[in-house]
Design goal:
mainly beta; ten-stranded antiparallel beta sheet
Length: about 190
Amino acid sequence: LMEGVYNDTGMRLLFNYVAINASIYMTQGVEEKYSYGGNTFGVRFGLTPFSNPFTLAKEKFSNFELGFSYLYDTDSNGDESEKIVVFDYESQTGPLIIRAEYYQRTKVIGVEQNGYHTLIGFDFEKMKMFPLIMYYRYGNYYEKNNIASATEESTGSFDSSEEYLTRASAGLNINISDISYLKFEYQNYLKSS
């Protein structure tokens, strides 16, 4: 059984073979406590072409992974309520960290969301200098709502709105005894609507 903040009780199957990994899961629905009450089915595939967990040879890239995730959520009748598609990338060569993610979320009720963020960081721990990671993140997010209001359902008209957000942030992660991190982050909203 899997407990989590985003998903509730369920089950998960993990798979790993050389440079391929996967996670397949089924849980109670994404918004089970709020409206839908169905189930969530999801899968994540990862590809780590420069690593082999079964070798003793030193790897050129200490961390390099391409990932794809798909989530399908149903309502209490078993009909589709939403789906999410995500592509992600992560690499670390020496102290240099690069991460990126793109997602697209579609809800049957008329909500569309998509966005991306990229992160570049520098890990001073890899250089045996300080227990510190510095990073800069840039992201762009979009949401479109075409939801019929309760008073307008009979007329077939919709409330429509669009929201944009562009944000840049910089921060520090301080390693405390290899148990936890103390995080400081500054966020700057460059554009929003």
